[in-house]
Amino acid sequence: MLRRLLILWVLSLALLAASIRLYLTDGTYHVVREYQVKSDRVRFYSLERSQWEEIPLDLIDLKRTEAEIRDREEARKEEIAIIEAEERAEREQAREIARVPMEKGAYLVSGSELKPIPQAEVKVATSKGRTILQILTPVPIVAGKSTVELEGERSATVVPTALPEFYLRLYAEERFGIIRLKPQKGSRLVQKWSIVPVSNEIFEEHEEVETFHRQVGDGLYKLWPEKPLEPGEYAVMEFTPGKGNIQMWDFAYRPEKPLEKK
Q1: Residue 2 is inside which H or E element, if any?
Q2: Fewest CB atoms within 10 A around its CB: which of 78, 187, 191, 246?
Q3: What is the pLDDT of residues 81-129, one digit of tens each?
Q4: What does the alpha-carbon distance between residue 231 and residue 235 come to, in Å, rounded to a whole number?
Q5: How far is CA 222 from CA 161, 236, 252, in A?
Q6: Domain-ending residue, one of 70, 99, 128
Q7: CA 207, 204, 202: angle at the middle one, nearest 5?
Q8: CA-wise closest residue to 202 among 159, 155, 239
């Protein structure tokens, strides 16, 4: 911010002390600090000779001189306006960052407030049962087919609009987005995994929602769907493809049905 103020100060001084080209009708010019039109003569202060001088008015191209002065003043104003706009944008960004808690996770924008979304407990289901997928101690990877699920068929967090906005503080610089969950008996399907033998490479399959996102700060992003969501179950997800590490914050969009007319 101090740098911006200094630039504005320098530009203001430059505007006041800028040299002027006093054009003559033959195309040449004098470099002057200022000039005054007095009847049939022009009095000016020559920067080359550091003194006041006079010249007949009919030898001066006032139209060209004044046009250049106007152009320079407009250019200066534009420069100052750009700097002031950048300064406002920086202040707005700082206020935006300050709104979001420092804890990692997803936050739903609700008017002027932010509501934290509880992090979901993600489980990997195999033929041997279900195992909780943790951040620091991931589940053992076994070749074959697996599914990633959330307990329950419905999320406790319901968004009020088909175009919800979220802030996300990442655990790490990974992929993130919004995915649609598929309710099934007693749970919601997040992903299907195909795990390659020996290499244990994971190929994930999930339904991703097209989103816009904007970086707000280090590891902090704002994201929202490109198109209105259809009613259903969803989640904000952070993950690294092929690694089996997932963080999720589930929500649902359930618009109220209009009352039937009698």
Answers
A1: helix 2-17
A2: 78
A3: 888 877 776 777 677 777 888 899 999 998 888 999 999 988 888 756 5
A4: 13
A5: 16, 11, 18
A6: 99
A7: 175
A8: 239
